[in-house]
Amino acid sequence: MFGKRTDENRTTPGLPPAGQPAAPPAALSAPAAAIPDLPMPGGGGFGAQSQRAAAPAPSPAQAASIAQQQAKKSESGAAQRKSENYYDIKSTIFNALIDAIDLTQLGQLDRDAARDEIRDIVNEIITLKDVVMSIAEQEDLLEDICNDVLGYGPLEPLLARDDIADIMVNGANTTFIEVGGKMQKTGVRFRDNAQLLNICQRIVSQIGRRVDEASPICDARLMDGSRVNVIVPPLAIDGPTLTIRKFKKDRLKLPDLVKFGSITPEGATILEIIGRVRCNVLISGGTGSGKTTLLNCLTGYIDHDERVITCEDAAELQLQQPHVVRLETRPPNLEGEGEINMRDLVKNCLRMRPERIIVGEVRGPEAFDLLQAMNTGHDGSMGTLHANSPREGISRLESMITMGGFSLPSKTIKEMICGSIDVIVQASRLRDGSRRITHITEVVGMEGDVIITQDLFVYEIVGEDANGKIIGRHRSTGIARPHFWDRARYYNEERRLADALEKAESRNEMD
Ligand SMILES: Nc1ncnc2c1ncn2[C@@H]1O[C@H](COP(=O)(O)OP(=O)(O)OP(=O)(O)O)[C@@H](O)[C@H]1O
Ligand SMILES: [Mg+2]
Q: Rounded CA gap, 24 and 92, in Å?
C-alpha cells in the first residue's frame, strides 16, 4: 500500500463521515482540474493502450474472447445513459480518491498495480461512505474511475472497440460514434468540459503539443495510429470538440472490399492490376468515403523491391513493403515558425530517389509537384483528394494548381493533368452508410481544351429496399482495351486484365 493516506485522513477529506447523508451534488462536482496530468506509466505512450501492451500477451483465442466481451460490455455501456445519481456518486468518490492518493507515486506504477491501488481505496471510500451499490455497479464505477485517472476517461471503452470508425465528442455531454457507416449517439459523457479539455490535453501532449485559448486547434495521432483533431473554445462554441478516426488494427484489403460489396471481384482485379502496373492514380471521394483505405489497398500491390515514399499530414497509411520511407508534415509552432507543409515534403521527396510517391491527401499547391513527379519517371505515384466525382476531381486539381500561384495557362495545367494521371478511382459513402467504389475512370487525352475521360466501371443505384438499404450494381462499361493496356502488357498482366474485363462484361449480362 502506498499513497498519502494516513490514519487521520482515512476519513477521506471532503466526504461526510459514514452514516451521514451525502453532500448535495452541486457541492460535490469535481473542480476544474479534477484529473491531474499524470505521468503516463509505460513511458508516456498511448495511455491505456500502450500500458496494456506491456502486460503479458494473451493467446490469440483469449484476446479475441476478451475483445468480444469488452465490445459487448462497452456496446451496452455506450448505448445506455447512466443515471444522474451514478455520476453524483462517482464524482463524490472520485474527489475523495484524488484527495487520498499520491498521484505522483501512482504514476510510477504499472497499470495493474495502479488499478489494484485505486480499487483498494475506492472500496474503502465506498464502505466509509456507506454507499449502497450492487457488485456490478461497483465494478462499473471502478472501471470508470480507473479510466479517468489512468487513461482517456470515458473515451476508453470506445477506444477499445474495433468496430467504431469515428468517435466525435461535441462537448462534455454529447458523443457520437460511427459504426457500420451509420452515426449513433452514445450515452458517453464527461464530468464537465474541464475534464474533456484535460483529456484532449493529454492526447495532444503525447506529440509535444498543447491546446488552449492561444492555440485552439491541434491535429495529433494516438500511439496506435488513430488520427485526432481537437478544437477548443473560443473557436468551438459548445465546448472542446474531439474527432478521432479510429485506426483499424486489421487493415482492410481489396478482398474485404469485395466481401462488403464495395466493388466486384473483377473490379478488384482491375484495381490490383492498376496498382501493380504503375499507373498514376488519383483516389477521389468525400469525407470518410474510404479514400485512405482504398489507397492502402492499392499500395498492397506495389512490388517489394520498389522504393516508396509516403507524405501525409498524419501518418495513416500502412504499407507492407520493406522499402518505405514515411514522411509527415509539421504545423507551425506557437510563434508561427517551423512549419513543414505538404509541398515541402513532396519537393524533398524528389531528392530522395523515390520510385513511387504516395501523397495521403492532396489539398494545395503540392498538386503541382505531385503531377510533375508523375510526369518525370515516378510512375505508379498515387494520392487522394476530396471530390464527388472523377470530373470534379480533375477540376479540383486544376484549381489547386491555379490557386497555388503558378502562373500557367489553363490549357497547360490541363495538359499536365492529362499527361500525368492515368486513373481516377472514386470512393463514395452512400446515404445508407455503405461505402462503394463508384467509378474506375481513365484519363485518356484532350480534345481542344477539354480533358477526356472514360469510365471502365460505374456503380449504378437501382433503388432502395424496405430497410432503406440502397440497392445498386457495379456495371462494366464494356471497354475491352483500356488506355493502360500497353502498360499491362509490359508488366505481363495483359491476360489477367482481358479476363477480368470479359468476366465483368458477362456479369453485366447476368444482372
Ligand atoms: N469499403 C469499405 N467498407 C466498409 N468500411 C470502409 C470501407 N472503406 C473504408 N471503410 C471504413 O470507413 C472509415 C473511413 O475510411 P477512410 O479513413 O479510408 O476514409 P477517408 O475518405 O480517407 O476519410 P477522410 O476524408 O476523413 O480522410 C474507416 O473506418 C474505414 O475502415
Ligand atoms: Mg483519409
A: 10
- In degrees, rounded to 5, the angle at the alpha carbon of residue 351 between the alpha carbons of residues 346 and 354 is 75
Looking at the chain, the number of H-run helices and the number of E-run strands are 18, 15
Beta strands in 150-226 (DSSP E): 164-170, 175-179, 182-186, 217-221
- Say how many Å lie between the CA of residue 289 and the centre of ligand 1: 5
Query: E strands of 9-135, at which residues?
Result: none
Instruction: Return the sign of the alpha-carbon dihedral for residues 484, 288, 255, 359.
Output: positive
Per residue in 65-95, pLDDT (tens digit) is: 444 444 444 444 444 567 778 878 888 888 8
Ligand nearest to the CA of 283: 1
* Cα distance between residue 312 and residue 310, in whole Å: 7
Asked if residue 191 lies in contact with residue 30, where contact means CB atoms within 8 angstroms, the answer is yes
At residue 143, the 3 state secondary structure works out as helix
Enumerate residues with CB within 5 Å of ligand 2 (an ion).
291-292
Question: For 120-141, what is each residue's pLDDT tens digit?
Answer: 888 888 888 888 878 888 888 8
415: left (phi over 0), alpha (psi -120 to 50) or beta: alpha
Tens digit of pLDDT for each residue in 281-292? 999 999 999 999
Percent composition of the chain: helix, strand, coil (DSSP 3-state, to 5): 40, 20, 40
**Distance from C-alpha of 78 to C-alpha of 81, rounded to nearest angstrom:** 7
440 pairs with which residues across the strands?
425, 457
Residue 245, ligand 1, Cβ within 6 A: yes
C-alpha cell at 213: 485559448
C-alpha distances out from residue 388 to 313, 458, 481, Å? 21, 14, 26
Q: Give the pTM.
A: 0.77
